[in-house]
Amino acid sequence: MNKPLQLQTIEATRFRIGVPVPWNIYDARGSLLLRKGFVINDERQLDIFTRRELYIEKSDNDPNALRVAMANVSVARMLAEAAGHLRDLFKQIERNPQSGDASEKTLLIARILALAIEVNTDICLAHIFFNKFTHDDYPLQHSLDSAILAILLAQALELPPAETERVAAIALTMNVGMLSLQEQLLKRSDKLTATEKTRIRQHPEASVELLRKAGITDDYWLACVLQHHEKIDGSGYPSGLSGQDIPEGAQIVSLADRYSACLSPRRYRAGMLATEVMRDLFINQASSIDVYLAGQLVKILGVYPPGTFVRLQNGEVSVVVRRGKTGTTPLVISFIAPRGGHLTYLIKRDTREKIFAVRGGVRVEQKDMPYTMQQLWGKQAELQG
């Protein structure tokens, strides 16, 4: 005779989209509803469970269960899911803005990104920096990268989760008024025309207009989209605001936007190294940004963020896979030998050791990087499966 189950209630708020459920889930009568390992794929499924009383066995209430479940989650697939949702959102806003709830769809993407960061921040950062030259949809990728950086900045400032999601939503939608123009300009190497310059300066207003049509009524969200190109010295646009007249959300998104844009290659220049971007921000742009906010970004990323390439003191070329205890001592994986040519196998190096200390950042061409993110970061960077 089977022993009756000893059940206790479980809050559906402990479930996460994209994360395997770490328990068997039952109803009040002990009937099995979900098996351990079931993955909630979207907001619709999650909403179904939030409406029901759910139970787990008392013996399963292991505080480490959710942590263990998250260790097996593919962050890469979560980011790909966010990208898919954002692509659909952009199409909706551009072609038929009144066809759905753009606000809830954008916040869903923000929540997916926040969860991906919670599961593995280093892989999220590597998604920004690793093989930056391979991204084939700049408007989409730039929005996602900016949102990830904006979330990290908001968290560093200890903004509440709801405010952090709103900041991410601002970053995701800041450029909806110039998506097609961004694609056109990426294919160009000549100077901007007067018309193109005007369209660029007018894109904050164009974005706000499109977002209003798409049903977004949050005044703060719209204000920050409008003002994300304002600068604290008053040299920005569209209104020439300065200092504290610029909302905090707009300043966070502005810094994330600038940083991400500098990393991306153009036809007329290579993408800047992470060290070059920081030097540019603190030297060339210091008067127009909140230096404290930029300092927080340095603390978050380190001098050599995950996904960047570095040369070690012993001459090896490595990829940064994890931030270290200090900004200059990351964990790296070497793949090019001191005299050139690929190493026989990948080797982890601790840059706290003098011989493996980082000499500086380097550029690596796509042809010289034969390894995928999954090979370097493991299961959580697995895109398929």
Blueprint (SSEs and pairs):
Elements: E1 7-9, E2 25-26, E3 32-34, H1 43-50, E4 55-57, H2 65-71, H3 75-95, H4 102-119, H5 121-129, H6 138-156, H7 161-173, H8 179-186, H9 194-213, H10 219-226, H11 248-263, H12 274-284, H13 291-301, E5 309-312, E6 317-322, E7 331-336, E8 342-350, E9 358-362, H14 373-377
Antiparallel strand pairs: 1-4, 2-3, 5-6, 5-9, 6-7, 7-8
Helix pairs in contact: 3-4, 4-5, 4-6, 4-7, 5-6, 6-7, 6-11, 6-13, 7-10, 7-11, 9-10, 10-11
Structure write-up:
The chain has 385 residues and is α+β, with helices and mostly antiparallel strands. The protein folds into three domains: 7-71, no CATH class; 75-301, Hypothetical protein af1432, CATH 1.10.3210.10; 309-381, no CATH class. The protein is 45% helix and 11% strand. A five-stranded antiparallel sheet has the order 8-7-6-5-9, covered by helices on one side. It has a two-stranded antiparallel sheet with strand order 1-4. The model has no long low-confidence stretch (mean pLDDT 89).
